[in-house]
Write a structure and sequence with these properties.
7 strands, two-stranded antiparallel ribbon, 2 domains
């Protein structure tokens, strides 16, 4: 028999925060989608961004990338210089679920996120509800990132809960697979509607 869920853990970007770097660069490249895609897949890549989530400073990240692509110095500096503009809003359906879960007072709600320690304070200002979690683990502050096991163990130990009583929501499958490997249940987020349905399958009500 499945353990009763008492803890719900949310990823942030792609689950609660609608973050789209292409918004900034599509404007910079005058609507050229191919150029925008090339830039984000070749210059300011997801892998490069993950380095900041793991604790590298933005200054160091920019220095390394400008050395590699000096002709794109302006655009590289725009990535974090215009970071707030990439956050186009909240994913409202997920936010509604989060708020409803909070109102029940039946669940502990935590955030487990890969995030730069320099941009996270900006996110707290843009999205004040991030301050209302029962606790959070931010990768850059720990110098550990998903999907590696250590960050999940930090979460369990810091907030002293049994992972078998918890469900983790993330938009990246590898992070869900890691959560399951570490004893949690997992929901691979695709939409608020799918999230609501899968939470109900775990007996989570709100």
């Amino acid at each position: 028999m499945q353990n009763k869920i008492t803890t719900v853990v949310f990823d942030l970007g792609g689950v609660l925060i609608d973050h789209h770097p292409e918004v900034v660069f599509l404007k910079e490249f005058k609507g050229d989608q191919a150029k925008t895609d090339w830039f984000l897949n070749t210059v300011c890549t997801a892998e490069w961004n993950l380095g900041q989530d793991a604790g590298r400073t933005i200054e160091e990240a920019n220095r390394l990338k400008i050395a590699e692509f000096p002709e794109y110095e302006k655009q590289i500096l725009m990535y974090y210089g215009n970071w707030e503009h990439m956050c186009v809003g909240s994913i409202e359906g997920t936010l509604a679920i989060f708020e409803a879960l909070k109102k029940t007072k039946q669940y502990k709600l935590y955030a487990l996120t890969n995030f730069s320690s320099e941009t996270f304070p900006k996110a707290l200002k843009l999205f004040p509800y991030l301050n209302t979690f029962d606790g959070r683990v931010v990768s850059a502050e720990e110098k550990e990132i998903k999907p590696f096991d250590k960050i999940y163990q930090i979460l369990f130990e810091r907030f002293d809960f049994d992972p078998t009583n918890a469900v983790f929501i993330d938009d990246k499958l590898e992070n869900i697979e890691a959560a399951i490997r570490n004893g949690m249940h997992g929901i691979h987020f695709k939409s608020p509607e799918q999230l609501a349905k899968e939470l109900s399958l775990f007996g989570v009500s709100y």
